[in-house]
Amino acid sequence: MNISTIVGELITLLIMALALGMDAFSVGLGMGLIRLRLRQILYIGVIIGFFHIWMPLVGMIIGKVLSDKLGTIASYAGGVLLIVLGIQMVISSLRHKEESFIKPVGFGLIIFALSVSLDSFSVGLSLGIFGARTALTIAIFGFVSMILTWLGLIMGRRVQGWLGNYSEALGGSILLAFGIKLLLPL
After folding, report:
1. Which residues contact 45 (CB under 8 A, 6 or more apart)?
2. Which of 30, 43, 104, 106 has the most CB atoms at less than 10 Å from its CB?
3. 64 contacts: CB under 8 Å, gap ≥ 6
4. 125-177 pLDDT, tens per residue?
């Protein structure tokens, strides 16, 4: 394999990683509107990166065996999860004294990470069918999504200070809109 082929594959994987990581950025922007400490932001980014490693890896393994029919199901499941998270955040923001049911900690963080990495599973299915380099692919996907998640969470945290109590409703609206976009691709 020559250098130009390797560079071409690397550029392609970086572009794919950026595209896949943009949902983590967008959702991170929405979730960053909840009051989060920097340690939580660091942890959330690492978990999202971890899911963006494992989901495409599982997808690549299954993609070598199955067809790409599961890709559509994974996108719909991700959309539904984001809609549920978004609705919950909007409702939580309207209830001034009640605790939010789903927060980016514990089980809520797992749901959050799963919802933004399901599309990586779908892409992993396709890449598995085409025989992409597994280690390089998952390393790039994980690293890029972690960085983009951190950027989204930090930007959301800054905006949260400007919006006050309305920031969680805005964050929920962003998640809800992104979930609907996954369910109704244009």
Report:
1. 28, 146, 147, 149, 150, 153
2. 30
3. 128, 129, 131
4. 667 666 667 888 899 999 999 999 999 889 888 876 676 656 667 767 776 78
- Note whether 93 and 33 are within 8 A (CB): no
From 26, 19, 66, select the one nearest 149 (Cα to Cα): 26
The per-residue DSSP string of 65-95 comes to TS-THHHHHHHHHHHHHHHHHHHHHHHHHHS
State pLDDT tens for residues 20-69: 777 778 778 877 777 788 899 999 999 999 999 999 898 888 766 654 45
The model's pTM = 0.69
Q: What's the domain range around 94?
A: 3-183
Number of domains in the chain: 1
